[in-house]
Design goal:
Blueprint lengths: L8 H15 L8 H14 L5 H9 L1 H15 L10 H19 L5 E8 L5 H13 L6 E9 L2 H9 L1 E2 L1 H4 L4 H7 E3 L4 E3 L1 H4 L2 E5 L11 E6 L8 H13 L1 E9 L9 H6 L3 E4 L2 E3 L13
Parallel strand pairs: 1-2, 1-7, 2-6, 7-8
Antiparallel strand pairs: 3-5, 4-5, 8-10, 9-10
This protein binds S-adenosylmethionine.
Amino acid sequence: MVKLIELTPDEFKKLAKLIYEKTGIHLPDSKATLLGNRLRRRLRELKLDSFGAYYDLLRVEAKYEEELPHFLSAVTTNETYFFRNTNLWNFIQEKWIPEIVETRGKKPKRSVRIWSAASSSGEEAYTSGICLREKLPNFAKWNVSIVGSDISDRVLERARGGVYGEYAVARMPKPLLSKWFTKNEDSYTLKQDVQKLVSFQFHNLRDAMKPGDFDLVFLRNVLMYFDTEMKRQVLKNVSDAVAPGGYLVIGDVDPVRNDKELRAIVAMDYQGPNLYRKPLPVTVGAGEGK
Ligand SMILES: C[S@@+](CC[C@H](N)C(=O)[O-])C[C@H]1O[C@@H](n2cnc3c(N)ncnc32)[C@H](O)[C@@H]1O
């Protein structure tokens, strides 16, 4: 009979401390059994006979980089899909894009910048690209830049590939699916027309994002992994990256609105469920102040 490798309280504490230091992800003691269950198969693959040995391996910097994606997938989920949360995408297509067109659509230089923070495998970033392709008139005249970022190289690699399974596209409006994807035997490849609008990069939300000035920033389904201190840091970094007049979208599961302190860090106007807008700078009108 195969002996079950046990995760001792001490090993759990060490692993939890390490993941916190590296990523800001907080693992409460109640997650010990889950972590043990999720990592056990990885230990077998690596032919390690204890979680202590796994911890030692993670502490070697070069090994850590290689192992991080596996460790991360034991403590977070990369769950995401195209058009996640229909109301949000309705808002983007019916209000936000028309507003951008109204204010910038006649300028000789028309640009729009979006950041999908904690993008996972890219569905959110690419959904924005599809919406812009659909709704921006004279698309060729626009300079569109969408950045997707994540801490897991493995999901970023998947994002760059632009190939998705049935689950990822299941909630997409069917006409958009056939318009923007090529169907393969058991997957879908996103067309270059959308892929080329998006670039993906490694980024730890603990760090400031450069350069800022995004017209729309998504920060969805990730804050829940962090403790209060990390949430503060992340919200500050992300809010700083929003351009005046730009929007920040928070996930349904990451309520910020009812937390006074976090709400103060997101010093923006509340626009509806999990939607914030950075105020424009106050301009002094002609004749005023004289
Ligand atoms: C559930 S996915 C969210 C995907 C997408 N935003 C959505 O809502 O559909 C959470 C992602 O957060 C990433 N993540 C966790 N900690 C992070 C950190 N400190 N910095 C950047 N990304 C992080 C994970 O790798 C994972 O891909």
